[in-house]
Every structure is written in structure tokens, then in C-alpha cells.
Amino acid sequence: DTEVTQTPKHLVMGMTNKKSLKCEQHMGHRAMYWYKQKAKKPPELMFVYSYEKLSINESVPSRFSPECPNSSLLNLHLHALQPEDSALYLCASSQDRLAGDTQYFGPGTRLTVL
Amino acid sequence: KQEVTQIPAALSVPEGENLVLNCSFTDSAIYNLQWFRQDPGKGLTSLLLIQSSQREQTSGRLNASLDKSSGRSTLYIAASQPGDSATYLCAVRRGGADGLTFGKGTHLIIQP
After folding, report:
1. Looking at chain A, which residue has its C-alpha nearest residue B30?
2. Chain B residues touching residue A35 (CB < 8 angstroms)
3. Does A5 touch chain B (CB under 8 A)?
4. How far is CA A48 from CA A21, A56, B29, B57, B83, in A?
5. B41, B45, B103 member nearest A42 (Cβ)
6. A35-71 pLDDT, tens digit each
7. Which of A43, B5, B36, B70 is the most exposed place for a label (fewest CB within 10 A)?
């Protein structure tokens, strides 16, 4: 099973709302990632968790707050977002520390900020 | 800073043709390179991964090559089909737990 699941599929929120995106994998992977993809652009890395610890934060604004409660689950908490934060948010996972490990992506959450 | 470039940006060919998509990267110190396809509004599907020590990988009608020293990779698609229509993304990885740096993709249309 090489599946990464993400919920919800679609999310519409106002600028004062607080919401969370959820990502789950059951492949025993120890590295998990959040990417942001704007329309007609490539994905851009936001955060990397390795063994449940935040290892990379690509200078993402604090209105995005990641959390890794356990090795299978990754959350992205959203607060006071701006309309320009509307995008497809992709989660990925990989075995970590192995040159041959593939990153597997979920289907994404389509976020619209009003 | 690693930069990944994909040429062409868009390609439209008749069904049955063989085609080549190109990817180049500026920093040759990569861990591996991965090719993905993305259908409109969807997530990414991994097609092939080439480790930095490898020269090529094959899966079905797809063949990817890597010339790390010159910073180039190609994705060869044989006997193209309308179902191959998608955006193809090339991505490189710096280290074990690092994320991927993506090119802007090649938008491919296979005409029936």
C-alpha cells in the first residue's frame, strides 16, 4: 500500500477562521512533508518532519502551524489566512535516509480563503 | 540555490509518437531525481526515481536517464497514448530528509 490520504478534499474559509488540514500514511515512513502549489505553478516545499520532529521550515509565515502527533499523522493548522494563501496543499511521505526512497504524494486539499 | 528547468513548457503530438521531455538542474550535488505526472487539479503520481549513482530507470513505456555531472535528465515516452496527457514534473532532492525542488513542468497533450 503506497497511499497517502488527505482530508478534507476541499476547504473554504474566511480570513478570521481557524481550520486544520490532515494527512495520514500507514507505510511506516518516518519523513513527512507539506507542499503548497499555486495554480499553474510547481509545488513548493513548506515543512519537513523527520522522525516526528520539525527539521525544515522554509520561512513559512506563522499563520501556518504544522504538527506531527505521531509517525503516521501530519496536521497543518491554519489561522488568519490571506486570500493569496488559496492553493492546493499537498502532503507527502518517504522512508527517509535512503537514497532510493520515493516521495509519495496525497491527492491534496484545495483551499480557498475568502 | 537549486534551480530546475524543464523544456519544453508545452508539447502537443499525435498519438503513437515517441517523445522526450527534458529537465536540467543547476547544482549537481543531488541525492536523487524523481519524475511525476499531475492531472488537472490532482495530486502527484510518482513515475520514476533515479538515484544519484544511477544512469537510468525504466518502467513500461517510460525511460528516464540522468547525467548528474552535466545536470540533466530526460524522460522518454514510447508509443504515446491519449491517456498520457498530463503535466510532467521533474524534481530533485538534496539530502535524506530534504524536500524536493520542482521544475515548472511540461504540459503534454497527446492528440487521438
Report:
1. A99
2. 99-100
3. no
4. 15, 5, 20, 27, 33
5. B103
6. 999 998 999 999 999 899 998 888 899 999 999 999 8
7. B70
pLDDT tens, position by position, B1-44: 899 999 999 999 999 999 999 999 999 999 899 999 999 888 99
CA-angle at B4, arms to B22 and B57, nearest 5°: 50
Give me the pLDDT at residue B96, please: 63
A contact test, residue of B2, B38, B44, B48 with most A CBs within 10 A: B44
Q: Which residues of B38-58 are buried (b: 16+ CB within 10 A; e: fewer)?
A: beeeebbebbbbbbeebeebe
